[in-house]
Amino acid sequence: MPSPAIPSLFTPVRFGAIELRNRIVMASMTRGRSSNAGLVPTPLHVEYYRQRASAGLLMSEAVWVSQRAIGFVNVPGLFTSEQLAGWRAVTDAVHAEGGRIFAQLAHSGAVSHPDFFDGDLPLAPSAINPGLRSFTPGGFKDTVTPRAMSTEEIHATVDDYRIAARNAKLAGFDGVELHCATTYLLPEFLNSALNRRTDAYGGNAANRARIVFQVLEAMIAEWGPGRVGIKLAPTFAMGGFGPTHETPSTYDYLVDGLNGLSLSHLQIVRARENLHGTPVAALQDTVAYYRARFRGTLVANGGFDRNVADAAVRSEAADLVSFATPFIGNPDLVERLRHELPLSPSDSKTYYQGGARGYIDYPLAERDRSAGT
Ligand SMILES: Cc1cc2nc3c(=O)[nH]c(=O)nc-3n(C[C@H](O)[C@H](O)[C@H](O)COP(=O)(O)O)c2cc1C
Fold first, then answer.
1. What is the pLDDT of residues 80-93, one digit of tens each?
2. What is the DSSP code string of 291-331?
3. Which domain holds residue 168?
């Protein structure tokens, strides 16, 4: 007989300094709906996040910490007063529904494009083209060879994160998550193929991780304990951006250091591909690997369905599970999981563009069912 002490996906949980009403997190999703010159969140954003507020916690889409951080079309920022006001309307709407929301802070680094900077080169750890595609106002374009950041630019970037973290507080967020996953600036610093620096920010694990700790410390200085988390995807590979033989030891060093900070959480994106024969084969069972290393609250992400997610929480393999794609077509994902209702598919053509379409027009399960009778 299941003991009431065993948590399920629907059991409330302490999350750093706050309480969440369930263990279902909406993972960050860039949706490209700030189609205005100021990159300001709009009433569409208010409605999109409000519709999904029954999640225990919403992670905002990745938001730019500064003008120089921009690198994907129509993605909102958190560095002007207009942007703050736009986000305030979002956080108010989520709170009015009893929900909680963190801002995910981001800098695109080498996957940006000169088109965002009047022809100036994007900033990166080293002048190495990651060989990816950048979604610019003129469509997808190949990335270029970026400019290596000076030490002063690294310090200024840490400050940008600090100010954006402060802005997140002013805009009414409940906390902040550092985007240190996939292809953006910080995972570039962690990657020994893309970071060839010979100064204090490259050359070994401690140096590659230095900027991440400096950013986290700046964010924690603004928010205090239990309100700052981080998202990592150590096995992520795309184009010329992939794990190296130094990836496991670099992330080991990083995660060991995270134990010394009072973070709200570590969100880990698990590997779904077979890593046999790759430099990160040891990270195949990604969630278990970092569960054993990280002593705080662990959020597991990546291709979870209801049963696998619930089993992960019940077995304490993870404390919470985050879902991204399922939340696009199912604003009431929590209710659907709770009642084991079927999930609706979503249209990938409107993932990153399309205004209201494919954004705020997915029906609730109730409406699906009554429409079918
Ligand atoms: C449309 C879309 C946009 C995304 N944007 C972000 C983002 O802004 N920040 C981020 O950390 N991850 C982003 N991701 C990755 C997701 O947060 C998540 O890690 C990934 O989709 C795996 O979770 P899932 O299998 O539940 O979709 C995005 C994913 C999708 C589908």
1. 999 999 999 999 99
2. HHH--S-EEEESS--HHHHHHHHHTTS-SEEEESHHHHH-T
3. 13-329
